[in-house]
Amino acid sequence: MSDLARQGQQVFQDHNCIACHQFYGLGGYMGPDLTNVISNRGDLYARAFIASGTATMPNLGLADDEIDAVVAYLAFVDQTGTYPAENYDVQWYGAVAQEDDPQ
Amino acid sequence: MMMKGKSDAGLRFMRLGILALAAGMFFGVIGGFQFLFPEFLRELLFTKTRPLHVSLVVSWIFLIAIGGIYFYLPRHRKLGLWSEKAANWHFWIFIVTGLAILGCYLSGRFGGREYFEFPPVLSIPIFVTWMLFGVNYFMTVRQDKKTWPVYYWMWGTGIVFFFITYTEAHLWLIPYFRENMVREIMVQWKSYGALTGSWNMLVYGTALFLATRIGGNEKPARSKLAFGLYFLGLFNLMFGWAHHTYLVPSETWIRTFAYAVSMTELFIFGKIIWDWRSSLEDWQKNRHCNAYRFLIAADIWVFVNLGLALVISVPAFNLITHGTHITVAHAMGSTIGINTMILLASIFYVIREELPLEAHAGCTRQIKTGFWLANGSLAVFFTALIFAGIGKGTYSGLSFQDMMLTIRPFLLVFAVSGVFLMLGVWIMLWHGFRLLGVVQASGRVAVGQPEPA
Q1: Closest CA–CA distance from residue A7 to any residue of chain B (Å)
Q2: Which residues, 6 or more positions from B253, have their beta carbon under 8 angstroms from its beta carbon?
Q3: Contact indicator for A20, B38 with CB cutoff of 8 Å
Q4: Which of B186, B194, B245, B372 is deepest in the core (most CB within 10 A)?
Q5: Is the CB of B250 less than 8 angstroms away from the CB of A101?
Q6: Can you tell me the distance from the alpha carbon of B220 to that of B256, in angstroms, rounded to the nearest whole number?
């Protein structure tokens, strides 16, 4: 984890973003899951939402360097796996193996 | 009549717990409407209402369970508390820390992780209070030279595992965990799963204690089935957490193992209460009509939640239900339907035992109204969340806002039923708070058996 991503993690916690968002489906449900937001939508998209807010998400008034840090943190999370799982095998007894599982 | 004595720590914890639930439900209702109308109370963002709601209702569970233990040991087990002073320190440190946490949330000062969003330094006094409670509990029950009933084991295990799981929940402070996302999220959710298991130990122990007292028979707390539940609960607490993290990259065997463990615990608990119910005489049911009614409601919710837990713990189904409102239905159904009903039973058991009939008036129409309003609303609330979760889980589009629009009718039912749920619970809480106040005012509670009311 880079220093910038580490700062972004702290900003993410300081504003309690997990109250509304999720990683790997874990968190609040008021906003979308952010696990792969960078690869799915791109960092400019994420940056625009963070900087301006939306009808449902408040503008948190973050400084540019804080926004850079949060985007770096989201990029760090993005490369840890895929959510929801896209390639998986369901066993006959209901268990599931996913492509990201450690082998 | 009350016996003269020295401690009312248990009653103070219970009354504080009632206030915590009343406030927690209020913030929950606000949060429910913020889901639908994000502009609603913009000054009090959802990032504040959610932790306020969660922290206060979790405090309710711990406060009533702890209050019951502080009350029942001296009063009904003839075990004077090892240290009254430690119990008082526990109470006051809890209040000061709790107010500091609420102040942090209201002012938007976060810094911690989900469910413990307050600045981590405030975890230190929480550890201290549990240290005081744990030492006091074990030094008190060690006076009992007979074989321990299962609820002693459950309470003690709940305390010990609170320490372990709460410590785990703070491992993110160490860079080794914080800097590996998968490792950190697995440890975090392992701790949350096990923390729930630890409070279930406290609450289920309380339920079994009440079952023995209302029935006048220690068998429910000494049977093989009861100890079977205890060991299964302990096993579940230690190994059953992984159903929270099925979709986080992990070894398949971890999911499969958690899947097997998750299927078992609630069923045995339900069976114990069901067997106990059929063993009661009518006079016993009537004497503790409120507590009895709450325990039966808890039992019904056990079976409802078991059905849902069975479904969402199957990894193949969890692919759809994970990250949806079905998870919320599971959490709400368990904490309100099971935990809260048992804890209300504990409150009204104390009231029935400690006050003469003319003071508490038994099963009044108001309490019945609150009971049915709460349980009826909870059924609607629970169902609406399941439908909202199915809508979210099966949505195939790319737009989060479109998905929210498709499930909006269910969220509206959820929010409105939440208001009625709050009103129903408030009615019961008001009577509980008022009557516990009468118990408290009538004299300080002593070691020994209460006289027949």
Answers
A1: 12
A2: none
A3: no
A4: B245
A5: yes
A6: 32
